[in-house]
Amino acid sequence: MLTNDLKKHLEERFSFTIKSAQALRGGDINSVFHLKAKTNDVIVKVNKASVFPKMFQKESNGLTALRATEAIDVPEVLGYADYNSQTYLVMEYKPSGQINQEFWELFGQQLADLHRKTKEAFGFMEDNYIGSLPQYNRSAATASEFYREKRLKPQFQMAKDRGYEFENIEILYQKLDQIIPNEPPALIHGDLWSGNFLVNSNNKPCLIDPAVAYAPREMDLAMMKLFGGFDDLMYTTYQESFPFEKDWEDRMGLWQLYYILVHVNIFGGSYYKRAKDLIGYYV
After folding, report:
1. How many domains does the chain have?
2. Are residues 83 and 117 in the same domain?
3. Which residues of 119-154 are buried (b: 16+ CB within 10 A; e: fewer)?
4. Which residues form a coiled coil (predicted)?
5. Which of 63, 92, 121 is the last residue of a domain?
6. Within its chain, how far is the Cα of 268 from the centroid?
7. CA–CA distance, 231 with 279 (Å, rounded to integer)
8. Is 137 found in the same domain as 58?
């Protein structure tokens, strides 16, 4: 909730005068507001400080890492802090443009450019969040080790704690070294569904709400395909710029298993059966 007290604090900290505050749709975890000020507009995300510790600090670090690559547009983080019982993140406001055919070509090229940014090891500078769940990013030497230890195992344990049982998990773990290609780490968005990009005023893609890590690049593609919303031209352009490893399409379900498990642990329901079906396919 954007209280009057918090508004006053923001005005004092960021030296602007708020003319209006509009609540935006789509904030499943946080309350999101478009603040119109005399000098500039900003986006403010707000939550209770006790609910998700350091979430906005971690989101800020993820956005900053993506923005530093200059591969694709990302909102500038203006600041974050706890204030009284609330926590907030203030970002640059991005006016909207329109999607055209050139947009998808550019998106494919820029995502490929982002994925070329690499490190010696898989992981990230800190653990962060995937939606409302913790995401673990301690260093791993290989893609299969990272995916097994930092992605699948924590989600399977959470699911077990919630009463969901799975068979053949150990068999799946043993097969990962054979299935997953030995590619270097790539800087990925980490939660790239269609609700986590914008079209900026120059009709170019802009990434928001990341779950950043240096991870297998195919994970971004798998999340994109999981719920749709991306034109085929984007994949074609990506492939031309940064060709996929052999049999990449057959691995999409393997990467999607992580995101499906996240949904099992948040929503339950039909996602549970889908997760079991994916395990059955790969074992």
Report:
1. 2
2. no
3. eebbbbeebbbbbebebbbeebebbbbbbbebbbeb
4. none
5. 92
6. 20
7. 28
8. no
Same domain, 271 and 196: yes
Find the length of the chain.
Answer: 283
- Hey, what are 101's tokens? 């055919």
- Integer angstrom CA distances of residue 232 from 45, 103, 244: 32, 12, 15
The verdict on 49 and 135 lying in the same domain is no
What does the DSSP assignment read for 92-108? E---B----HHHHHHHH
Digit-coded pLDDT (tens) for 88-122: 999 999 999 999 989 999 999 999 999 999 999 99
pTM score, whole prediction: 0.96
Q: Which of 29, 93, 25, 91 is nearest to 55 (CA)?
A: 29
The model's pLDDT over 147-204, given as tens digits with 9 standing for 90+, comes to 999 999 999 999 999 999 999 999 999 999 999 999 999 999 999 999 999 999 999 9
The answer on 31 and 143 residing in a single domain is no
Encoded tokens for 163: 């009463």
Domain enclosing residue 193, as ranges? 101-282
Last residue of a domain, one of 92, 115, 131: 92
Q: Which of 191, 231, 247, 250 is catalytic?
A: 191
We report the CATH number of the domain holding residue 117 as: 3.90.1200.10
62: which 2 tokens?
């993820």
Question: Is residue 250 scored above 70 in pLDDT?
Answer: yes
